[in-house]
Design goal:
This protein is about 25% helix and about 30% strand. By secondary structure, it is α/β, with parallel strands linked by helices. It is globular and about 50 Å long.
Length: about 240
Amino acid sequence: MNEVIAKVSKVELINQNVYQVSLDVPVDSFIAGQYLMIHLPSGESVPYSIGSAAHELPSLQLYILVADEASLAFKVISYLKENETVSLKIPGGDCHIENGALKESVDQVLLVAGGTGFAQMKSMYDALTEQNYQGKVSLYWGVRTPEDSFLVDWIESKDNISLVANEAEADWQGTTGWLYEKIVADNPDLSRSVAYVSGSPGMVYGTLDKLEEAGLAHDASFSDVFAYAPRPEKPQL
């Protein structure tokens, strides 16, 4: 990873608690699916998935959830609002579209996101679209409620992106339930698919368990979670 100084172009609240951060970065490239580290004056370094594709450089997008004022994310957003530049380390991560998974034998690429894990999957989606990838690509995004989503106009402009809310009011016209239920309903046989999954460890492993029941091969799934929260061994029956 390279140490760079980036210009802070925009810090904007785009839903009830997610900020879109636009940075201008002096780098030539990165691979869709990678992340960066934001350095704070306290010495803390905070990782965030890059939410845009490399063809958009030097502009780069982040999507940062701020749960409360005690969170590290609140410190990051406050720092970005107060400063014109920020020190970064970029890029990092092996869960990306050039990791060798996209073989000719693959029928479909599943991009599966929980919460602001959407950023990583959006980067991959945009990069594959820009590269005119010929295989089938489907992005599934799970949120707790519809109000937790963002970039709705972008989502609605695509025909291969699905937004799934765990819970919603009666007037919600979209899909409600668990994310894996929507994926399996659309794709009952996942034996020739690969899946990139982002979200909390519980969300990632719980979703993968269900997708493997639908035929997804154990070695056809990829997530940054694997690096910092290794998958627990399943009990032998």
